[in-house]
Amino acid sequence: MHTSTISDQTDCTGTSPVLHYDGAGPIASIPSHNEIVAEYDNRMTAILQQSISGKQPIHFMPTEVSDDTKYVNGVSSYILRITSSLINGQKAIVNITGIKPFFDVEVPEKMSISMFKSRLVKILSSILNSASKFRVKTISAFPLQGYHTEKKPYIRYYYCKEAREERLSLSSWAVLSNYLYEHIQEGTYLFQVSVNNYNPISEDDYNNPLFSLALLWDHTLVLTWDIEIYSSRKTGEVSNAKYEEDVVFMICMTVHWKDNPKPLKQICLVNVETAPDL
Which of 98, 161, 174, 189 could tie 92 with a disulfide, CB 3.0–4.6 Å? Predict the structure, then answer.
């Protein structure tokens, strides 16, 4: 499936230039996430950059949470990774360090996995006074000591309420301080911060005239799209990219702030050159 495409792009002012796309490679004439943010940020980008350059606290809105491990000097460290929107709408990734939420216990060779798991659960339940504060699962891994050609069974113990116990704000504005940062792909900020320097927003921030209005809404930039396809094979089946007769003839997209139905950009890719809808 290969389609030479024309782009019809409309912004919130109503203008809609026609842009050509040959179907091979990225569409350079369509603005990137950061370019759209810079156009509609209400001067928040300048405030953000000033805060970062001055090592001042910054605000962000968590949108997605995941976890990872990283080895530092041979020691495994847990990382809570949060994808977020900064105060201007720019995307950022925050790696929170200093958390130790799980450990692995090797299953003894002369004991079945089920029996060992039951014993471990009983021990942990008595220590934590509840079985709801953790979960366990069976994994296979190479032992850390010595050389081994085969993996051995382990019971991995997870402490399920780490975010709550650390009082981490994962659904509203949060504040980073004493952080390290760098730019990664496509201008995205990558922050690294200790769990002790990740805090919920304060009432004083809501009263700060520099950015109080920006904190009243979620600055997540949302892309919606709809794809139209056609097949001249007339089989009644869904179009498949491996057939030359199957084509994508239209992709329509809107870009807008979360919870705001007014689009910032409206983009339409079609496979036949046409005049824009003014």
Answer: 189
Weakest mean pLDDT among 45-59, 143-157, 249-263:
143-157
The span from the CA of 68 to the CA of 258, in Å, is 28
* pLDDT of res. 110: 86
Rounded Cα distance, 95 and 190, in Å: 8
Strand 75-86 relative to strand 221-231, pairing = unpaired
Among 82-86, 135-139, 160-164, 241-245, the least confident range: 160-164
Q: Which of 1, 3, 25 is nearest to 249 (CA)?
A: 3
Q: Enumerate residues 6+ apart whose C-beta is below 8 A from 130.
A: none
* DSSP3 helix / strand / coil % (the chain, rounded to 5): 20, 40, 40
Q: Which of 76-80, 106-110, 132-136, 246-250 has the lowest mean pLDDT?
A: 132-136
Its pTM stands at 0.65
45 burial level (CB within 10 Å; 0-12, 13-18, 19+): middle
From CA 122, how far away is CA 115, in angstroms rounded? 11
Do β-strands 134-141 and 152-159 pair in parallel, antiparallel, or remain unpaired? antiparallel
pLDDT for res 2? 47
Distance CA 256, CA 263 (A): 5
